[in-house]
Design a protein that fits this description.
4-stranded mixed β-sheet, 45% helix, alpha+beta, Thioredoxin-like_sf, single chain, 215 residues, globular
Length: 215
Amino acid sequence: MSDKTPATPVDFWFDPLCPWAWMTSRWVLEVEKLRDIEVRWHVMSLAVLNEDKLDELPEEYRELLETKAWGPVRIVIAAQEEHGAEVLGDLYTALGTRIHNLGQGPGKDTVAAALKDVGLPASLMDHWDDTPYEEQLRASHKEGIEKVGQDVGTPVIAVPGPDGEQIAFFGPVVTPAPKGEEAARLWDGALAVASVPGFYEIKRTRTKGPDFSNL
């Protein structure tokens, strides 16, 4: 019988469409090598998040959400419901690598190829335009976004706090994804500020776009 303390669970909500969530996810996987944590993946949806405020969004972003955001998250939730949550990590890696690192975009061909990469059935593509798992998709999204509030997006990270209750935060938004001890220091700092009651925000203007060169 092992007396090893279980790894700290880290819940991570993602939409495969978001390049910033992708960057953060690669950082968290780097942290998993350096700190005693175990990442648990969950889907959230930028399309759901923004569906009541489309008229307020820039035209280009609105078109992206309306035409490209729904299909991938429907496939992800269908994979979860039909094959178990344990497939989400590898599926997200396959999707993100193709969508972001390889620049293939979030179209049907890309998602179908990602399913093949991880050995999931092509029949999951039947959920692209409509899925019976929309309730589960919205529930997963709601679970994540309610931890941080409606005025943020993806990713959302939740960890046990000092008192055992979960603490959650959006981000961090960082590029490129830190490696090694830099990744660990950022993790320790993010947990430190997030655990302070009443702490809400640190922010500075982004001066560069997503850099996938070290992924």
